[in-house]
Each structure stands twice: as structure tokens, then as C-alpha cells.
Amino acid sequence: MCGLLTSCDVAGTDEQRSDVAANGLGVTSIAVARHEEPGVNVFEVRGLSANEQELARVRLRIGALAEVRDAFPEADVGSELVFSAFAHEQRFVTRETGSFSPVLSGDPQIESFVRLPEVRIALASAKIAWPDESDEDAYSTTSCNSGQLLVSPLAKQCCFGGISLNATVFVRPDGKVVQRNQNPTGPGTGCRASNGTGSCSGTACFYGPNGFSKPVFNSPPVGSPYAKIYTNTMFQPHCDWGWWSSPQTPEFLDATGTSGLACGCACDNSGRTCYDGTQPGTCGSAASCTTMGCPTGSSGGGGTWNY
Q: Beta 156-161 vs 167-171: how paired, if at all?
């Protein structure tokens, strides 16, 4: 028998089981597994009932994925992150392969599952984590400003706000919902590691030249192609979205930004932004990546944080 907050191997599988404290979802244990598919690493956390029925799941796939190439044609590798609970599902695609803090659309069962302490511990082992929120913090949402966005494309219904991590959440012209977390240091300090302060080089930087993480995409489900970005007051006010079969009245304004499309992070761990001349667009007054001796293109980071 597995103990509370302890794990045990399951014979004949790569899973480890942990019992879960009583909760409103009926999840009594979780099964954590890692395995490999051709060119892809897979991590899963499954929430199980007392009779072994799967109630919820988080699945992370990292590697050369068709879903990533569909969203980012120039990307060689990336990640797909799927959250599901009681037949509800949220699917995210991103270029990021190191750390993940996705903004979950407000499904109460999915939110409740990932907030279980045992699940949070398991997810953190795969660097899927959210900072702990404080009841003393004040949360709010507002329309995005130009300093938070790129010059292109148009960010429709753009909301800025969040719980623990501020983020921009908006609809891209092709209908996909895009989310990007802002570096809490600064806030918005660019070219930093996932802790917000550490040094990094090129594409290894979690927060890019404009102080936001790599974009995460959420595609519309069949039959509900219209997204609405809105303020969700569950837990604390934060940017959220839902899908409808017809257009909805927007809560937030459309916006474009001032950040250039050809910006990358320097390769010298300095935290400086550099201009990648192999990418379309500009990068303000930033020095050339080539002049700094940094690689350009997909290996150099220029455009990596674009949406």
C-alpha cells in the first residue's frame, strides 16, 4: 500500500503511485509515469478513484511534434501540454521545453486537480509549476498596453493580469488563444532564466527580450471557433477565456505593441537583447547578434518569443 505523500513502484510498469488526501474530486491516488516515444519524451500524472477509474490527467510531451510545427512552422522541437478532468480538456502548444506555467482556462475540476498538493509536487518534478499566491496580494485585469506586445500581429481582446504571475492573454488573428507570462522581476526584465533573475544564453532564456515567456497556444475546439477573453473571478480575478459557437461581445480592447520581431537574447549570459538580422523586422537600437559573436536563426533565439 502506498502511503500519503510517499510513492511506490507498480509492478510491470514505469508508474509510481502516491495516495492522495481526501478531496472533493474523488481522487484517492495519483500515478506518475515517464516514458519515451520515437523522438518524444512523455510525462504523465493521472488522478485515480478508489476503483482505479481515471478521473483526471496531465500529460506533457516534449520533442519533434507535429502539433508544434503546425503552430510554429520554423520550430524543430517544442512541447504539448494537455490537462483533462471529467471529460473536459485543455491543450497547449509551445516552443518552450524547459519550464511551464500555463494559464489554465477556468475549468473548476481541472483547476482543483492541479491544486492538489500531491499533484503539485508531481508536476513540479517535470518543471510544471505555478508560484504560490498570497491572499494579501491584489489581483486585477486590464487591457494590454503597447509595451507588453509585439508590433505584429494584432492581439485581439488582449487582457493583462493573473494570479501570482501576470500574463497577456489574447486571440491571434487565426483564432488561437495566446498566453505569455511576464517576468515578475522588474516586472518585465528581459533575457532571464525561469527564476526571473538568473543569467541565460540565447534560446535557453525562459523570459525573452521583451520580458515575457515563449507563447503558449490554445486552439479552438470543433464547433466552437470563437474565443472570448474575460475576467474570471474564481480564486482571484485573472485573465481567462472560453470558446463559443458564435462571436461574443468583447471585454478587452485589441492592441498592437512596440517590441520588434527580430529580437533575441545575447549568448554571453549578460541579459542583453540583440538584433538577429536573419529574422524579419527590427529590434530597436539593439546591437547585432552577429557583432556580439552570437549565433542567429533558430539556434540564436531571434523570433523565438514571437507569436
A: antiparallel
